[in-house]
Amino acid sequence: MAQIKTGSRMRSQVCATEVMVIGAPAGEMEVTCGGAPMVDMSETPGDGLSIADGADQGTVLGKRYTNEAADLELLCTKPGDGSLGANGETLSLKEAKALPSSD
Hints:
The chain is mostly beta strands. The chain has no helices and twelve strands. The strands form three sheets. A six-stranded antiparallel β-sheet has the order 7-2-3-9-8-12, with no helix packed on it. A four-stranded antiparallel β-sheet has the order 6-5-10-11, with no helix packed on it. A two-stranded antiparallel sheet has the order 1-4. Strand 5 and strand 6 form a beta hairpin.
C-alpha cells in the first residue's frame, strides 16, 4: 500500500492504462489495474504480470472513476484493458451530474 496524493500519475503493470489522481483520501491505499498494483510513472512495470480474471472491463480515455465512498477519483489519461480498483473494490465510472432544467 502507498500514500496516494492528488495530482500524482500512475500506470498499470498489465496493460496500457494510465491515470491521474483527481482526489484521494488521507492514509494509505492500494490502487490496482487489472488486479495488479499500479506504479508511479517513473517506475518500470514488473515482468510476467497479466490481467486477472474478472478485472478486464477496461478503461475509457477522459473518464473519471471513483470508489463507493466517493473519496477517491481517478482520471483516465490513457485507456487500457484492465479494470481499476482500490483496496479490493472495483472502481465505477463516475456519471455526469444532471443540469437543472432551464425552462
